Amino acid sequence: MGSVTRGTTNPNRLRRMDRWIAAVHGAELRRSPDPVAVDLGYGAAPWTAVELLLRLRAAAPRTRVVGVEIEPARVAAARPYEREGLVFRHGGFEVPVPGRPTLIRAANVLRQYDEEQVAAVWERLCARLAPAGPHSGGGLLVEGTCDEIGRRHVWVALGPEGPRTVTFATRLGSLGRPSDLAERLPKALIHRNVPGEPVHAFLRDFDRAWAAAAPYASYGARQRWIRAVRDLGSDWPLTDGVSRRRQGEVTVSWEALAPRR
To answer: What is the rounded CA–CA span in Å between residue 20 and residue 58?
Structure first.
């Protein structure tokens, strides 16, 4: 179920997303009796699935990864890379794996779809996640976009109940201003970066905070970013801490950026 993507991929393209997942979702993977992560739409080469296995196992050693692709030729090409804990399957948004995955990562998949299709895809994928319980937040869907070499990312994190947060992540040395990340907004937000929409106001305020933090640039781009994000938090509901911000990230509540209908 779904459409064939261009399949563009590169080694280390999703490293920022992977590291964030391992940091914020590692405990959930460790708690799960059968931690299964799905790399949905991994593309023409299996690099991202191989790397996802390595990065998640550093945080949760029992994790298994299933790479899922809708193009049969890509699945056949990936099969020689299978190993203990990593398999490849033909499929799409139905997520053809047994049980309910603890993680589904869909990077650079929905860019080719219409904005009106996103909500239905999110709903379908969230319904496949492991459910929340008394001591569990449930599975996590991470859906977003990045550039070709992984310098700039924006992704939405969703639980079984729906969207939770939006994370902006960048290689700070290559950043001119925070609104440079606008071109990597996921499909649910990219057409909403216009006056009157929350995501436009957020990026506008972020640019202002970045400009005001210019004196901190003498200490490096990281210190400037941390200061700008601290000031941004006065007006926006940020959900992360300094340890993630030092990585060139900032995470904000989905409700603050959700499109106006």
So the answer is: 13
